[in-house]
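hiii, so i know i said id send this last week but things got crazy w the move. better late than never?? heres the sequnce for the chain we talked about at the cafe, plus the structure i predicted for it. fair warning i was half asleep when i ran it
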Amino acid sequence: MGKETGQSVVGVIDNIVRLGVMFILAIIFIIMGVAMWDSNNSQELYKGSFSAATLDRNWTLLSRGTERKVDLPLELNTEKGEEIELVNSLPGDLSDGMSLMIRANMQDVTIYVDEEKRVEYTTESIKDMSYYIPSAYVVIDLNEEDSGKIIRMVICPKEQPVVNEVRISYGNNVWFDVIKKGLPASVFAIIILILGVLMVVAAFVLRKYFNANTPRNLGFLMINIALWIISESGLRQFIFSRPSLTMYFSYILVELIGAMACLYFDEVQHGVYHRFYLVAECIVLGQVVLNVGLHVLKIADLYVTMKYSHMWIAFCAVLAIATIVIDIYTKRGRTYAITLIGMVCFIIMSLNELLGFYLNRFHVFGGSICIAMLFLMVATIIQTVYDEVNGFENREKMQTAMTINTIQTIAGAIDARDEYTGGHSERVGFYASRLAREMAADYDLTEEDILRVHYIGLVHDIGKIGVADTVLNKSGRLTDEEFSLMKKHTEIGYEIMSSLGQEIKGVLDGIRYHHERFDGRGYPDGLSDTDIPLIARILALADSYDAMTSNRVYRKRLTDEQVREEILKNSGTQFDPALAEIFIRLIDRKELSVMTVEGAAADLSGVVRKSSLLEDKLQRDLLDKVDIVNPTHIRMLCYIMKLMEKKGKEYIVYFASAKSMEKLEEQIKENSSNHDVFLLYTNEQYIIALYDKTEEEKFVFVNSVRMGCHDVKMVDIMDMLDS
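okay and structure toks below
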């Protein structure tokens, strides 16, 4: 009692500590929110100004020999490649350490102050520069002496006939708005890059343990997109020492997006559309190689040919959308439903980026596609984990199914080898599962548990595979020595299944302990009461019930009343009394169907198996000292018949005799097929086993033999049952 009270106090303290920590964190979040967004900050320290002034008014535009006053930003009515000049006066209140900035949108820009060239950003000023010079921020330093001087900008638009605003501020404050706008996309891109590298590395490391192709391809796509965003970032002049070179890899990276996305989509969709994606990938890669070649040969600039690559990217997007629509319609999309949502989001955002390139000259690349990539990555990881969990469960099920198939095969072989227990394991499995179902409510057994009981019943006698035929199939009762050998089958079976593992829970207990007795006088370990595993106590009843309702060479099957009396008499000694009571209840309610007919093994439809009849006749003839020519051959025939019966195939069995056995043998040989079997049973009688014959084929065979051997007597083994 004191121990329980102590545990209760500890539990209360644990809860108080957890709630206290959560409350403190909540308070901290609230205070942080106020600190970040509360505008009542008049008493706080002044952090200075990052503002920049604009020099956008009263510019003089000189173009085509004319001049006019304009304000910036300005869209030009000039041809691409046509040079213009803009002239203005610098403010009169400049001071040392100030800067002036203008964004060159794929333009040659040269800035003069009082005709002194302060900066030149042109195709000619940079070695091996493309005609379509990358966009950049052009910055010059200003000082107090520049106050009021004339500033002249010579601009040659290559693509977009526009002049952006001019900004002036102290130090590098001119970069503040640029950084503010470009930082989120750049940070996102760096995050995507890091995550992409991690995805590729993780896929490489874990490739032996699961299908890593999908996360690997996604990782490469993420790296490709992240590098493209960084190369197109407004901050590239901070990131790269030679930002002018970004044009080469930024164009190629954006062109590769289509091919990389197709590789990823193809893997996600399990290669169903592999040929279509392969064609798209080859086209995109071919276009990239062609574009680079044309640029190197100075036939066409990368920027010009990139537009054709954009068409193929759009084609890849349309192809992906088409395959997704087909998968949704055919319900194939269910196999990657989680990733499918991310794929649709990615395609939409990618097309948005593509349209932004053509429709919005101020478009900031990367924001929307980064969000899509994060969403797609999360969806892919969840899908991969989900698939692996499902795959693991399916592999477990397949492994269990393989084990079960092996068990059923072995059980069939054991039953076929055991002359007097044909179908015994199958029947024990059925009886045990029926008992387990009746017990389910009281013993919390699930459907899976009941099925497991059935399978363990099938293999409970697997150890008989190690028992000698002379003991296993002895005609008559076993001697004490022989019985001691027979009892070893539980330990032999335990060792066999131990080496195979235990995919089916409880199988080892069922095999080893199904001959233990409730009073402790069983074998092999003398367990008693509930020390005997439940599965073994169930099998003990099922095994004994089948033994009592089957024929033995030394007795006929017991009557239903005798069986009931035996179970009651041995309740509490041989059997668990609680289970015996349930079993008796099943018998009394006639809810347990005996799977033998007059003690002979029958199939599920109640038809007596011919192999069982032949076994029964052989055993009785041996007990009656009938001179069987070769009992081993007859047993082998029984074994073959049992195997075929398991597959739903049948032998039609006749006992045939005639005055001239030589002539009878000749007729049997002449009219039988390679699949039929005929054996000399006694010196005066043949066994003929016709394999899987129709009624017409059976009729033809019998008549042909009788025509060739007029005094032949042929008796169907089924007629022996009727008689």
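btw The CA atoms of residues 83 and 156 lie 4 Å apart. thought thatd interest u
miss u guys!!
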